[in-house]
Design a protein that fits this description.
Length: 461
C-alpha cells in the first residue's frame, strides 16, 4: 500500500529496505514529548488566528494529550511504516479524532516541526548538563577546601616540577568545569529561538503568529529566516562541541585518577562503590569507572566529528541527511550525563592520602626553583645565573643520592660562596607552597580565597 501521508501521487509503497533506511522512529521517538508540546502550541495558535476552528483545536488537543498518556504508559504502538515520531503521532491522532486531525498540519511542515522538537530537546538536555556540572563543581569545592594545604607534586611533562597543593589542583578543575557551564549557558541563549512556522522552507501564506508559538514553547523569540530555520543544526553541533570539550576535561581527570590510584603513586584510594576487583588477582582494585570515563570521551568526540561531517556538504535547506543528527546527540547526551555522574561520585568518595602526596612532592628536586629564587632575592644573582648554580646543586644531590634540603651547607657553599644556612628555609615543600601567594598561585591562603570566590559566584546562580 502507498503511504497514507503522501499516497496521492504514489502508486505503490516503499521497498522494505527503503523503509529500513528511511525510518527514524527507532530513535526519534525520544522526541515524543517535545513533538506533542509543539503540536499543542501550533494548534492553539491556528485557532487563535482563526485558521482552524476552536472545536477542531479542542479535538486535536484532547487527542494529543491522550497520545501523550499512551506513549508514557507504554500502550502506544510505534510503526516503522510511519517513518518517524511526527507521522506516528499524527496517524494516531487521525484514528482518535477523525478528520480534524488532518487540520493540525496546516501552515506547518515536518521540516520546521523536527527543528522545533529537536531544539526543545537539546535545550532541556543543556539544563540537565548545567545541573550535573554544578554538582561536580560543588564536590571539587569541598575537596579543595579540605585539601587547601595538602602538598602534592605538580607536574609538567609528567615529571616532578614544583610542589602544589591538592586543593589547588582541584580548583583547576573547578575553573574548567565552570567554563563548560558558561558554554552551556551561552549555547542556551543562542538556541532560544523557535523555528516553528518556517513551514517547509519559505514560510506560509496563512496568517500564523510565530511570536505566539515561540512564547508558548518557552523560546525568547521566533527565528528570523525561514530557510535558516529548517536547515540550521548549529544548536546540535554546539551541544556536541560543549559535550566534547567537557568530556575531554573529564577524560584528563580520569587519566589522573588512574595514575593517582596506582600502588606506585598511591595518592588516592577509590571507594569500593567506584572500583572493581579482578576475577583472578585477589589483590586488585581497578579504577574501571575512571577508565570508562576516559574511553567514552572517544564516543562523544566522534559524534561531534560525525555530525560536522554530515552537515558540511548540505546545500540549503532541508535534506534527509539531517535526520542523522539525532542519534549522535542522543548518544552523546546519555554518555555525558553518565560520565558526569560517575565522576562526581568518584571524586566525592575517594580517599586522599596526604602523606603519600607530601612524600612524593619532595622527590625529583621539586624545590630547585625555590633555591634559584632565593639566590636571586638574597644574593641578587641574575635569574639565569641562579638557574645555573642551582643546576649544579641538583647534579650534586643526584650524585650523592640525596635531596637538595639534605646537602651539607659547605658543599652548597663550594658551588656558590654566598649561600648561607637561610637557604634551607625555602627548600621544604611546605615552605615552597606557602610562598606562592601570587594571584591564582598555589599557596593555601590563595586556594582558600579562590574557593570562597567560586562559592559566592555559584550561589548567584
Ligand atoms: N524524520 C525527519 C528528520 O528527522 C523529519 C523531517 C522530515 N522532513 C522531510 N521533508 N522528509 O529529519
Amino acid at each position: 500500500a502507498s503511504n497514507a501521508m503522501w499516497g496521492g501521487r504514489f502508486a505503490s509503497g516503499p521497498a522494505a529496505v527503503m523503509e529500513a533506511i528511511n525510518a527514524s522512529i527507532g530513535f526519534d521517538r525520544k522526541l515524543y514529548a517535545q513533538d506533542i508540546r509543539g503540536s499543542l502550541a501550533h494548534a492553539e495558535m491556528l485557532a487563535a488566528t482563526g485558521i482552524i476552528s476552536t472545536a477542531d483545536q479542542d479535538k486535536i488537543a484532547h487527542g494529543l494529550n491522550t497520545i501523550l498518556k499512551e506513549i508514557e504508559s507504554g500502550a502506544f504502538a510505534f510503526s516503522t511504516a510511519l517513518e518517524d515520531i511526527h507521522m506516528n503521532v499524527e496517524a494516531r491522532l487521525a484514528e482518535l479524532i477523525g478528520p480534524a486531525a488532518g487540520r493540525l498540519h496546516t501552515a506547518r511542515s515536518r521540516n520546521d516541526q523536527v527543528a522545533v522538537d529537536f531544539r526543545l530537546w537539546v535545550k532541556d538536555e543543556l539544563f540537565r548538563v548545567a545541573e550535573a556540572l554544578k554538582g561536580l563543581i560543588a564536590v571539587f569545592l569541598t575537596r579543595a577546601e579540605e585539601h587547601a594545604a595538602t602538598v602534592m607534586p605538580g607536574f609538567t611533562h609528567m615529571q616532578s616540577a614544583q610542589p602544589v597543593t591538592f586543593g589547588h589542583h582541584c580548583m583547576a578543575y573547578v575553573e574548567m568545569f565552570s567554563r563548560d557551564l558558561s558554554r552551556v549557558r551561552d549555547a542556551i541563549q543562542r538556541m532560544d529561538e523557535s523555528p516553528l512556522g518556517a513551514a517547509a522552507l519559505a514560510g506560509t501564506g496563512f496568517p500564523i503568529d510565530r511570536h505566539r508559538t515561540a512564547k508558548a514553547l518557552g523560546f525568547r523569540e521566533p527565528t528570523r529566516n525561514s530557510l535558516d530555520s529548517v536547515s540550521d543544526r548549529d544548536f546540535a553541533l554546539e551541544f556536541l562541541s560543549i559535550a566534547a570539550i567537557s568530556a575531554t576535561h573529564l577524560s584528563r581527570l580520569a587519566e589522573e585518577i588512574v595514575i593517582w590510584s596506582t600502588p606506585q603513586f598511591g595518592f588516592v584510594k577509590l571507594s569500593d562503590s567506584f572500583s572493581t576487583g579482578s576475577s583472578i588477582m585477589p589483590q586488585k582494585k581497578n579504577p574501571d569507572a575512571a577508565e570508562l570515563v576516559r574511553a567514552k570521551t572517544g564516543r562523544v568526540n566522534g559524534h561531534l566529528i560525525g555530525l560536522l561531517t554530515v552537515m558540511k556538504g548540505l546545500p540549503l535547506t532541508y535534506s534527509k541527511d539531517m535526520q542523522e543528527d539525532k542519534e549522535a546527540v542522543f548518544d552523546a547526551a546519555e554518555t555525558l550525563d553518565l560520565m558526569l555522574a560517575a565522576m562526581t561520585g568518584m571524586v566525592g568518595d575517594m580517599t586522599v592520602d596526604a602523606d603519600a602526596m607530601k612524600k612524593a612532592a619532595g622527590s625529583g628536586h621539586s624545590t630547585a626553583t625555590d633555591l634559584a629564587d632565593w639566590l636571586v632575592r638574597r644574593l641578587n644573582l641574575p635569574f639565569r645565573e641562579a638557574h645555573h648554580v642551582t643546576g649544579r646543586a641538583v647534579a650534586l644531590a643526584e650524585a650523592r643520592k640525596t635531596t637538595l634540603a639534605k646537602l651539607p651547607l659547605e658543599e652548597l657553599q663550594a658551588i656558590h660562596p654566598g649561600i648561607t644556612a637561610d637557604v634551607f628555609s625555602v627548600l621544604s615543600v611546605q615552605k615552597s607552597v606557602n610562598s606562592r601567594k601570587s594571584f591564582g598561585g598555589t599557596a593555601p591562603a590563595e586556594v582558600r580565597r579562590q574557593v570562597r570566590y567560586w562559592k559566592k559566584r555559584l550561589a548567584k546562580g
